[in-house]
Specification:
Blueprint: H1 11-24, H2 27-34, H3 40-61
Amino acid sequence: MRVERRDGESVEQLIRRFNKGVVTERITKTYREKMHFISKSEQRKEKRRRAERNRRKKMAKVPF
């Protein structure tokens, strides 16, 4: 991520713009994911676990 200072822009504004760019490009999320190797099978298992958890949450919210 690279940010260049604009005319009349303060350092705080520059840092804020940089942080927004980092968040929108998901740089920190990608970094955290790549810190440890996770096999494809483990990724699929985690995806299934998350989907099941979300289904249960959704069912708990539905009023009968």
